[in-house]
Task: structure prediction
Amino acid sequence: MPFRSKQTLDAWIEEFRTFGYPLSVKVIPQDGSLGLDTGLVGVTMMNAQTVTYIEPESPGGNRWRITFEARETALRLNAGGALALSTELAMVSALCAFLETKSNAFVGDDLLDAEEESLVH
Result:
């Protein structure tokens, strides 16, 4: 099962920021089984003002999902506001895809390292 430490996720988020997306993102420490970070990434969406986060679909999984928590009030936007929200949604989608790509590469690297180590021993 891959382990995504806060340090690893922070590095991935910093790499994502180099692409120029103006998105407010932070890694949220969360203990899973055995005290390991589970990979919870919080996103602040300025045009939706709703709690949004990205996390693996299952502990240690490579597929990520986006959760938009329920709102207490209706969200009403004009055309410009809806366009701004759609831009933020596109960025959140790009971040989710980026995290999946990094997770797949992370697992691939781990598997390669394990194979190399088994050849040595």
About this structure: The chain has two helices and four strands.
